[in-house]
Amino acid sequence: MELLGLFHYWVFAVLLMIGFYAVVAKVNLVKKLIGLSLFQAAVFLLYITMGKVSGGTAPIFQAGMTDALFSNPLPQVLILTAIVVGISTTALGLGIVVRIKEEYGTIEEHEIQEIDRQ
Amino acid sequence: MTDLATHLPVLQVVVPLLLAPLVVLLQPRGLAWAAATTGSVLALAIAINMALAVLGGADLRYELGGWAAPYGIALRVDSFSALLLLIVTGASSAALLAARRSIDDAIQSHRQPMFYAAWLLALAGLAGILVSADAFNIFVFMEISSLASYILVAGGPDRRALPAVFKYLIMGTIGATFYLIGVGLVYMMTGTLNLADMELRIHEVADQRPILVAAGFITVGLALKAALFPLHVWLPNAYTFAPHAVTVFLAACATKVSLYVLMRFDFVVFQQNLAGHEAQFAAFLMPLAVLAILVGSAVALFENNLKRLLAYSSVAQIGYILLGASMVSVAGLSAGVLHMFNHALAKGALFLAVMGLATRFAGLDLRGLAGAARTMPWTMAALVLAGLSLIGVPGTAGFISKWYLVTAALDEGALGIFLIAVVVAGSLMAVVYVWRIVEAAWFATPAEPAEASGAGASGEAPFAILAVTWAVALANIVFGLFTGAQRELAERTAGALLGNLP
Fold this sequence. Notes:
Chain A is an all-alpha fold. Chain A has helices at about 1-5, 5-25, 30-50, 75-105, 110-115.
């Protein structure tokens, strides 16, 4: 049961490894970037789960609230920044892939290496 | 003025950060260059000012928005960050002052304002990492500087830069994400992001296992960004195919800033909180440092492209810096930190000379450099001078740090003898690869003598490049003879980092 209780960490670890595998094993550059996005998304989940307080609600103060239990908002704020960073990285990566396609006519890693070797 | 002085740590970041969007608007490209250079020199002036204050015994702290740490975000400049700020802003200023002609050749004129804006963002990011005292802020600045430097590297005309920068982006992002995981785990256990606060709170953590995992993630992630052997594979191609001015800037400082964060975290946050951490740190990094020195130098022996040769030499130099750090002694650490400064001087001058050479010899292949010494004697002389510093010949800056490294190794007993042998072997290989450049430029006869009379094939590098190259090359001599200030900063850094060792 303890294993199931930690299921959000399992989600983090499994997603992280799927993403990492795609980055390492795929030869298509767009697939590599998809893997990279998954890899980053796993870390977003890690941060969001750690801020959850069981029974806690969204940390918004309202009039007449006395002893509400709040989730920790700080990790969510942090990860908002990290999501922005992740999007910029993916966008820049895709931009580079477009340039590679223009210059080399392919986005398969081994074909690019072949062309460079000539 | 005194009022302004208290704001210097934040101005160090804000000046280039705010100039970046302004530079985009400056359409005549000369103006964009002038604005970027002014911003960079201004940043250098701020860095010098803070270094002098730190040398005078000040410990500069700044609370953003007036919120007190650990709840607010704090900036802090001590001797370690002051020294690295000098390297970063100095490298950027030297590269920009020299680079105008080289960048005109490499980048279309309507793209140049954007290019200079990316440059300023990279500078702001690197400076931000150095002034920040907050683990998450370091991550954000790391990503700002990385994203900007991917753009800089990909900006050149060589299409091989694109796959190189893609690899750099993938590996850089994985490194940064590993760092983020580590910071998350520490935050989970301690509830703080402020580095100084973290150090205190980890004491109170009962279960040390997540902290140990965090230390692993952070160390590996930053080693990836610092291009530590065997995680260096992104570096040679990125340096080789980047525009020459970008190589000057990044080679002199980008990896060192990651090493700075690595040392900060391992020595300040984890050192006294994890049992046996210094032994693990040494056991993990020392073999890698030794391999980096030997393999990096050996590969450089056989490289035929001048920029690739120097890039592999950089891999070896990162090894020297970490070798010093992995001795976990005051002498070793100050040698490593000093080598950061001296290597930045030597490699900066070398790549500046390469930038000059590239205006005449497009391929930068060693075999194509025949006769270079005849057509551009001043550039080649500066290159050799910087090469001597890279080798570590007495009288140059490179000698000082290698001397300290060897002295520190002597304290290590039998292991020390082996380490000295490694340093000597690395230096001997440096002699050989620098000699290969000399041989190609001075003694090889040009394959086609008629080529020398072709258009643009003769004459010195443009004056701006030559002047800056010589200024940096002579700085290698000056800092080789007058070692006071930077040694003081390095020793104080080592003292502070190891201050709480048992």
